[in-house]
Amino acid sequence: MTPQRQGVAVRLEGLSRHYGAVRALDGLDLELAPGELVALLGPSGCGKTTALRLLAGLEDADAGRVVVDGRDLTDVPVSKRDMGMVFQAYSLFPHMTARQNVAFGLRLRGRSAAEQRSRAGEMLELVGLSSQADRYAHQMSGGQQQRVALARALAIEPQVLLLDEPLSALDAKVRVQLRDEIRRIQLDVGATTLLVTHDQEEALAVADRVGVMRSGRLEQIAAPSVIYTTPATAFVAEFVGLTNRLDGIAADGVAQVLRARIPLLPGSSTSGPVSVLVRPESVEVHTQRDGDAEVVATSFLGSLGRVRVRTADGALLLAQVPTGEAGVLQVGDRVTLALRPVPALAVGRD
Amino acid sequence: MAGLQRARVRRQATFRWVVVAVVGTFFALPLLGMLEFTTRAPGGGRTAAVWRTVADLSGLRTTYPELWAGLKASGALVVLTVLIMLVLLVPTMTWVRLRVPRLRRTIEFICLLPLTIPAIVLVVGLAPVYAWVTYLLGGSSAWLCFAYVVLVLPYCYRALDAGLSAIDVRTLAEAARSLGAGWGTVMVRVILPNVRTAVLSASFLAVALVLGEFTIASLLHRDNLQVGINQLGQRDAQVAVAVSFAALALAFVLLLVLSFAGHRRTRRPLATPLTEEPA
What we know:
The complex is a heterodimer of chains A (350) and B (279). By secondary structure, chain A is of the alpha+beta class. Chain A contains 9 helices and 20 strands. Chain A has a 6-stranded mixed sheet, with helices on both faces. The N and C termini of chain A lie far apart (54 Å). The longest helix of chain B is centred in the N-terminal third of the chain and has 37 residues, at 2-38. Classes of the chains: A alpha+beta (350), B mainly alpha (279).
């Protein structure tokens, strides 16, 4: 399937929103390139959903502008913004069948009954639910309902597709399936898409770029691999993926940690005592009878395992090792630790 | 053990039937008394003459003009009260849920307030208001609808609140708005179809209450069915009792319909998804 419409550029300029004394968004600037999928990631209350709702027009900004395809939509009501949206909660109209739900937006646009039917059928086929066209919401599973909601949002050929934690109510297996399907469909139709999620795996897996938010501001926005390997702040490093905080001494762009020399990422504290943020996969664990560290817990995660180790100075450290290695280690085993020289972020000690 | 269990179930079933029988008798006896009274023939024995009179609407109009005026007024009052109540409550309650949920308790308090005020006290407050209503709109009994809307508010609020609570009003409205629907379309095509049973319940309750109202109409010197029946009772008690019986039966049928509609709704949940299955 070729893209039905080229995506459009979206720009949020200095968006702010307050709820009483609470500052939900604090001068957010964000740009989405045509056809791009950007995921906003962050903890509860960081302002990611508020950003999406301001873009949708479901809430009014206290300050700032929403510009879509060069048009200022800040004061345009939600019903005139031409944006498809999939909600976190199940949002299918309960009194309508899947087909009627998908055709709803087309009906409002005055399309003929034949066109509504054919387009609704096309969209349901796109999400793999042609056989469920005559079912009501209560006759479908949560995953099916969200796919119909996606078909409904896409049926109106929106300028922008907005996904507000669409997978959070689903179980793990369906969530992964649907996540991949959403990405496939988004690439098929070429719609500029903003996805809001608190699930880092989901964001990293489907987005072209991931924006990590904190307290109403973007901490960092970059490609998923960059966010993971080159976090700009300690918050990003610790929110995305797992991180160990290890004490070290920084000098000349390198930190001395656990007898290893770790190159420091830009933005790090460059001298004196620092905490170095090291990923578990950068930690090597070697069994050694007189090792200066001790295994305190192991966990099996399928293709890999995690080992929690207490160092000689009492610090706890997490290492990620292949399942084979993790299986050999027992709680109480003496081990030695080594760090791979992977660039890491260092911050001043608290 | 199983024997004890069976005996307990039997005892509970017997107790339930006893309660049903006692309550049924309590309500049925006065109705049977009314039916017996309306079928008494002047010289003894039974006759359906009174019921034939009541069923003959054109005859009723000329023979009992006060009853006919009451019937007409109550008919108009039913329609107006239900319409005003729905137009007032449904959009307000929806709007409060969508935009100012913190006002929900206040609205509920205001709507339930008439329950705590005796009708006679309401009349004292309404009398000066109705002096203005008469001055501005005329003295028609149909304008009693304003007072009746206040009277039915607690019951109708409860019914509509239950309906609106059963759906995710906010998400449905936002979904419809994002697809291009204006507020009117949201109300008519999305909210109303999903609270249809609640709207019916509220309407039936309003009808039953309006048909049974006497105090306000009588004290404000307006016509309605109950006032007509009361006047008729001083002239022809049998016809008055027959009409009362018919009004009670109508209210009973309405409540029965309401209970069936409610039962149907509970059998078909609105938006609970099936257990997750690999999609």
